[in-house]
Design goal:
By secondary structure, the chain is mainly beta. Helix content is 13%, strand content 42%. The chain has a 16-stranded antiparallel β-sheet that branches.
Length: 335
Amino acid sequence: MTVLSSSPSSAKATAPCSGTPRPPRRGAGTRTTRSGVLLLVLAVTLTAFGVGCSDRTETTAEADGTEPVGINKEVTMPIEAVTTTVVDPGAEPRSPLRRTLEAGTTQQVTLSTEHHIEQQINQQALRDISPPAMTIPLTAQSGTDGVELTVGNVTSPDPTLAKALLPADGSRVGFDVSDLGAITALKLAPKPATSDSARAALEQAFYQAVYQSIAFPPDSVGVGAVWTVRQQVSGSVPLEQVTTCTLTSREGNQLTIELNVVQTPKSTVWHLPNEAGQLEIVDYLMHGTGTIAVDLGLPLPVSGSVEVGGNQTYRDPRSSVTLRQTLRTEVQWGA
């Protein structure tokens, strides 16, 4: 499993996860209604990949809703299936790329995310609404059908978020993984004392990371091999994401893979939540590159850095209001 991610982690950025935005009141007039729609837009457009929290389902130990012992609530989020296609099998010798994980294998790794988001409505002043960066120490342990992660002491340069994240130490995260390394489900079990803001920040971080997981090709490949991973990214703006992977080196279980990510919207219209209206997608360009180091004997990337960014423009068809965003996300894996 090779992962890159992008996710907001401030209270402002995670508002869609902790509550449902209310639609504008009817009869308030066009100006008030338009303002309400744009406020909603500001709340739900902060994820760089457009992935929201609406796809998640919550499960508990008992059907009557009682809390499982030792956790608050376990959140299970199904992940869209991927299609992997080999473009170039690479040089000989060729062999399958498969994890050789033994049950109980452990790995210490740190996931760091940094996001830059600028937003402008019409000719108003450009606003920097970037959420705070996060550094998440993880202990990963492989199982028979997936990976279980234990969250360590998560830090952030933002004092408020850093304080909110302290009780999350020891929270659990689970990945269900296919034979080709694609993540098929994400399970989150925060510690009981974890606040809504901290929980939402972690949920977005892992949700985004998982949706950028890279599956291995089904065929045998060698150095120089190129394959694509195609996946629909669910959210308020459904996206078609194509990641081109190039195996630049291999020494035994040690792989170096270059990534090239392109995202395009599957529609020309963004339907806002709660029937609050729709916006035309005037321009949407998201592109990213990076390099990831993988050990086939370990459950998570060993190291690497990926940056994804671009511009998005939306227009209200019933007014002259235009919303523009410039996004950039950097994700790092390391010891």
